[in-house]
Specification:
This protein is α/β, with parallel strands linked by helices. The protein is built from 7 helices and 6 strands. Pfam families: FMN_red (PF03358). This is FMN reductase.
Length: 206
Amino acid sequence: MTVRRIVTVSAGLSTPSSSRLLADRLTAATERALGDEGIQAQVRTVELRELAHDVMNAMVTQVPTGDLPGVLSDVAGADGIIAVTPVFNASYSGLFKSFFDVVEQGALDSVPVLVGATGGSPRHSLVLEHALRPMFTYARALVVPTGVYAASEDWGAGDEGARELNERIERAGRQLARLAADHERREEDPYDEPVAFADLMSGLGT
């Protein structure tokens, strides 16, 4: 059976977290859509709050430690990424941005990404378009057309509100599944030079 690797990144800071709830629902929708195509989803869910210290250390030292190297490797090898952040000051959270800042340059090139966000008010829904989509587009990721924003009221909005949110989630999951199904995973070049020659020479004494 064909397998596609999906990495879900949740930047929620509390337990339970509405960001994690949205991330889980987007993941389930993507798994169902892949399953409908006869494709198995191999999912890894990452809680960034558990990596906060490692992310900050990597920002300062440029060296990932702890569990972070394994997570970054999975992100680089993903066929699809689901990225969900709470809204802080009308944008993504600092932890969310810092994590993707330490992802290796080029690792997201042509990788399908589904963006999601949660916040206390519907007025923050444009964060998907003015913050998240540009950030991943800059990284040359392939951002799916439908992003999903969930305000606090969406979780208890009655039958109509719940149906509207569910429709957005299912549509976004189908779009990510289609792109992930067609994603061509990059193969590592065994002859690729891991360290630039100039860098090697700079370490030689005279």
